[in-house]
Design brief:
alpha/beta, single chain, Rossmann fold, 17 helices, 5-stranded parallel beta sheet, binds zinc ion
Length: 374
């Protein structure tokens, strides 16, 4: 995870980066903020930055062996603790039992919520917890020297889900000075955080994402026009998760989705009369919506490509979108993805500079017809 991939939180990012550059990384820190504001992605980006062997001014390099491993969350000095459930097959469950699925989910969505995690665990009515067995596993990991990095980093997600025996043991662990080990606790319980934990950690308050940063995220990465983005941000209370939820249920998004699916069907079946109707409709939309639609289309093409390659991306697809993309994915492959993206970007460029919309969209449709057959 890079700092630049995280919405907003500019001042906090700068503070975290400075602490590493000044070699003042304290050994136990508590990232405390509501769901969706970015506590977990910040802890991940921070951990990656701590381990990066070629740190840049404001982010990890992305190229060094450490960053490469962080990009898949498989660095041997990066450890995770998170709530899990017992099953008939896994008694005395600890995080390691669920590590593959945890990595997969986290790579898809670093803003994951507890409820989404429960769904991934197929927990049904069970609650996931961090049990006392976890502390044995933690001690075991701490007993090894670091493999590759200067520091071992242990990210403990939702310490509020610890039961009492686990909490007591963890507190003891936090009291000890562990050489070259950094604990990053990420909590969403802003009301009832144990004072004992608070007293043993440095508090990093993660506030709501600023509205203008949320709007920027929605406009530049999700294909939403300014006005809709502002409406969504207003209701999101600084949480990217809430904003994405709002977006997936917004009329604007549904309209884009409907336009995109019709368009792709027309392109694939080479239905020229329907295509003309579609182009007329697009031309009537106005420039902001046209641009937003093109970004939306880029996103779905990218998601489809990732699905086709079974690569978990930063997926933020709504249910219906995911269903469509999984059917559409076989047509988006390495021989046409880059060109498709290029054509969409070019069209965006022309629309932005007052190109004649009917021509731009017709031309684009013809090119996409060819590329889908490639
Ligand atoms: Zn690096």
């Amino acid at each position: 995870m890079f700092f630049r991939e995280i919405a907003g939180q500019k001042a906090l990012k700068e503070r975290l980066i400075k602490s590493v550059r000044d070699q003042r990384v304290s050994h136990a820190q508590l990232f405390l903020g509501k769901q969706g504001v970015g506590g977990l992605p910040l802890a991940l980006a921070y951990a990656q930055y701590i381990s990066c062997t070629n740190r840049q001014e404001s982010d990890s390099c992305g190229e060094c062996p450490s960053c490469k491993k962080f990009s898949k969350l498989i660095h041997p000095d990066l450890h995770f603790v998170f709530p899990v459930i017992n099953t008939p097959a896994i008694e005395k469950a600890v995080s390691d039992n669920y590590l593959p699925i945890w990595r997969e989910r986290l790579l898809e969505n670093p803003y994951i919520s507890y409820d989404e995690w429960l769904e991934s665990l197929e927990a049904e009515n069970k609650q996931a917890i961090i049990s006392k067995y976890e502390s044995e596993s933690i001690l075991h990991k701490l007993s090894f020297k670091t493999y590759e990095s200067e520091y071992k980093v242990m990210i403990i997600w939702l310490p509020e889900k610890m039961n009492q025996p686990a909490a007591n043991k963890l507190l003891k662990i936090l009291e000890e000075p562990w050489e070259k080990t950094v604990f990053l606790l990420v909590s969403e319980d802003t009301q009832h955080m144990l004072t004992t934990i608070l007293s043993r950690t440095q508090l990093i308050s993660v506030g709501p994402i600023e509205d203008d940063e949320l709007i920027k995220e929605l406009v530049s990465n999700q294909g939403v026009d300014e006005k809709t983005a502002a409406e969504i941000a207003l209701l999101a209370e600084g949480s990217l998760s809430r904003a994405m939820h709002g977006l997936n249920h917004s009329e604007e998004n549904r309209a884009h989705f409907d336009r995109f699916t019709r368009w792709m069907r027309n392109c694939y079946t080479k239905n020229i009369p329907e295509m003309s109707t579609w182009v007329d409709e697009m031309a009537g939309l106005g420039r902001e919506k046209q641009k937003a639609f093109l970004i939306f289309a880029l996103r779905l093409v990218r998601e489809s490509f990732l699905l086709n390659n079974k690569q978990p991306g930063l997926s933020r697809l709504a249910q219906e979108e995911a269903a469509f993309c999984s059917k559409f994915a076989p047509f988006i492959h390495q021989n046409n993805t880059l060109q498709l993206a290029d054509e969409l970007n070019t069209a965006h460029y022309h629309i932005e500079r007052n190109g004649y919309a009917k021509l731009v969209f017709f031309d684009l449709s013809l090119k996409i017809m060819q590329l889908l057959k490639a």
